[in-house]
């Protein structure tokens, strides 16, 4: 069984799985701009605070890649404007603000070293990829340590979307369940419901 993931960054292109049509269809959408990223977050194509933050980081990168012909001042102005725009997509998602500020800080740091725009854009790409990598590692650690609390036989109730689709990969609460299952424990999982998207049953 292939590993599910909410997004793919490949060859300078960003693809996200459309979570609105799961589990009946698997549809991948290409997001080509920060505007596309905004709509994907707003319209619940992508959901889960960590995944939203990661996609937003790539949204800043997509914006940066369109501004390679600007001067540094104009480039940074565009980055700040894009951050202001994207943060409105889902104001309650804590990771959204965190990821946007991290991308801004990285841009400022590289600019302060005197790098040209090509260097700044390359640094932003590395930063977005690192945000994704770190999130997956954090989820695996949550699973590893959470598994220590799960008895050999366990019944676990989950709520909402806390699996691999809500994060960069592996899952938070579901990550603990996965780690326990991978450790050979006898796990029964009860999935309750959330409205209006029925994320418990569908995702």
Number of strands: 5
Rounded to the nearest angstrom, the radius of gyration is 18 Å
Work out the helicity level: 40-55%
Second-tier CATH architecture of the largest domain: Up-down Bundle
Spans with pLDDT under 50 lasting ≥5 residues?
A: none
Can you describe what's shown?
This protein has helices at 34-42, 49-65, 72-86, 94-112, 117-147, 173-182, 199-202, and strands at 7-10, 13-17, 28-31, 153-158, 186-191. The chain is of the alpha+beta class. The chain has two domains: 7-140, translation initiation factor eif-2b, domain 1 (Four Helix Bundle (Hemerythrin (Met), subunit A), Up-down Bundle); 141-201, no CATH class. α2 runs parallel beside α4 (94-112), α3 (72-86) packs antiparallel against α4 and α5 packs across α6. The longest helix has 31 residues, at 117-147. The chain is elongated. It starts with 6 loop residues before the first strand and ends with a helix. The model has no long low-confidence stretch (mean pLDDT 93).
Short description:
The protein is an alpha+beta fold. 52% of the residues lie in helices and 12% in strands.
């Amino acid at each position: 069984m292939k590993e599910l993931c909410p997004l793919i960054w490949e060859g300078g292109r960003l693809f996200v799985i459309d979570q609105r049509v799961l589990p009946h269809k698997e549809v991948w959408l290409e997001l080509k701009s920060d505007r596309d990223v905004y709509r994907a977050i707003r319209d619940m194509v992508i959901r889960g605070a960590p995944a939203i933050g990661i996609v937003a980081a790539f949204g800043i990168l997509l914006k940066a890649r369109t501004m390679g012909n600007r001067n540094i001042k104009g480039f940074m102005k565009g980055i700040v404007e894009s951050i202001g725009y994207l943060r409105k997509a889902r104001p309650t998602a804590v990771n959204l603000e965190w990821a946007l500020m991290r991308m801004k800080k990285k841009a400022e740091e590289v600019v302060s070293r005197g790098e040209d725009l090509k260097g700044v854009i390359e640094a932003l790409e590395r930063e977005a990829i690192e945000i994704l990598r770190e999130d997956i590692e954090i989820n695996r650690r949550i699973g590893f340590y959470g598994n220590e609390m799960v008895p050999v036989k366990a019944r676990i109730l989950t709520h909402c979307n806390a699996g691999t689709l809500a994060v960069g990969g592996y899952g938070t609460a579901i990550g603990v369940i996965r780690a326990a299952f991978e450790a050979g424990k006898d796990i029964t999982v009860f999935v309750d419901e959330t409205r209006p998207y029925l994320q418990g049953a569908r995702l």
